């Protein structure tokens, strides 16, 4: 296994992909059919320092994103945030891929309205096996936006250029969010299965007293169990149940806490510790936030 390769700039990405010199230091749109990756880069882990939105179809060779192998038998869209890992595998002299890739550095959107809301686009944290599959109409629509962005940054830049580019990136992300919503709806049957598995894992976490050993349950814990990213799991649950993964965890925790409070006279601090809280004050604060009562008040009102 090779060492990790950090790609910190658009210029470094162009060198890696043998794509010539970029026309803008902070943003680039690549025709992926014209890119090339050396076979010597096989098994290389790549961590980029910029956002990537790629629409691609790879007839041979694969990309690993995190620990997951992505199936590119169908064209798909993948959005990646800075700091996430991609592993290149299966590259040979016949390797190629079709599609486009939009890459932009955080500095492009820094101190803009988009920087203030970029975290709202949770799909930027999805795994590669959670990529977005697009219809022909959806692909064409995104292509039109991409063309506007490319035309704008290749022109002679002026005081309006950045605003226009960033505005169109936001439009692109908004459409991606809409299309992911459509994908969640069309996968309802498999989503229900995932919801059921999540609820079982959540129940087991408390019935098996895993909290005593591992502390409070996290979204990442259940996402790993389900081979999903934390962001994807939370969005899926929100779509199917109206509650995020964190809200589900808190609801179950409070229900267990209520039962413990009413079933015994054990100190609140003991219950808090058993439920995974290092400090009972944090438990009391969450309990009051969710119920309107402190643990002691809840116990007293139920007597």
Automatic annotation (TrEMBL):
<keyword id="KW-0805">Transcription regulation</keyword>
<dbReference type="InterPro" id="IPR009057">
    <property type="entry name" value="Homeodomain-like_sf"/>
</dbReference>
<feature type="domain" description="HTH araC/xylS-type">
    <location>
        <begin position="200"/>
        <end position="301"/>
    </location>
</feature>
<dbReference type="GO" id="GO:0003700">
    <property type="term" value="F:DNA-binding transcription factor activity"/>
</dbReference>
<protein>
    <submittedName>
        <fullName>AraC-like DNA-binding protein</fullName>
    </submittedName>
</protein>
<dbReference type="InterPro" id="IPR018060">
    <property type="entry name" value="HTH_AraC"/>
</dbReference>
<keyword id="KW-0804">Transcription</keyword>
<dbReference type="GO" id="GO:0043565">
    <property type="term" value="F:sequence-specific DNA binding"/>
</dbReference>
<dbReference type="Pfam" id="PF12833">
    <property type="entry name" value="HTH_18"/>
</dbReference>
<keyword id="KW-0238">DNA-binding</keyword>
<dbReference type="InterPro" id="IPR020449">
    <property type="entry name" value="Tscrpt_reg_AraC-type_HTH"/>
</dbReference>
């Amino acid at each position: 296994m090779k060492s990790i390769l950090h790609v910190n700039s658009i210029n470094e990405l162009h060198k890696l992909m043998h794509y010539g010199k970029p026309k803008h230091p902070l943003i680039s749109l690549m025709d992926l059919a014209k890119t090339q990756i050396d076979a010597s880069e096989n098994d290389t882990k790549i961590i980029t320092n910029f956002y990537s939105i790629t629409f691609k179809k790879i007839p041979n060779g694969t990309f690993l994103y995190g620990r997951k192998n992505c199936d590119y038998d169908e064209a798909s869209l993948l959005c990646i945030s800075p700091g996430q890992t991609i592993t290149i595998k299966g590259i040979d002299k016949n390797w190629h891929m079709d599609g486009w890739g939009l890459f932009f550095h955080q500095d492009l959107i820094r101190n803009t309205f988009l920087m203030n809301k970029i975290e709202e686009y949770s799909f930027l944290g999805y795994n590669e096996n959670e990529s977005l599959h697009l219809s022909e109409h959806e692909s064409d629509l995104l292509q039109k936006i991409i063309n506007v962005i490319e035309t704008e940054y290749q022109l002679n830049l002026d005081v309006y250029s950045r605003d226009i580019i960033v505005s169109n990136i936001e439009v692109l992300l908004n459409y991606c969010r809409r299309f992911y919503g459509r994908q969640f709806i069309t996968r309802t049957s498999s989503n229900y299965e995932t919801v059921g598995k999540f609820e079982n894992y959540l129940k087991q976490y408390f019935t098996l007293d895993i909290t005593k050993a591992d502390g409070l349950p996290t979204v990442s814990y259940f996402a790993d169990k389900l081979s999903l990213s934390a962001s994807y799991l939370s969005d899926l649950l929100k779509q199917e149940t109206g509650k995020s993964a964190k809200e589900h965890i808190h609801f179950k925790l409070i229900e267990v806490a209520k039962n413990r409070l009413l079933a015994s006279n054990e100190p609140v601090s003991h219950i808090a510790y058993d439920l995974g809280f290092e400090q009972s004050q944090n438990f009391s604060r969450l309990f009051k936030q969710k119920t309107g009562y402190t643990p002691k008040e809840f116990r007293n009102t139920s007597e």
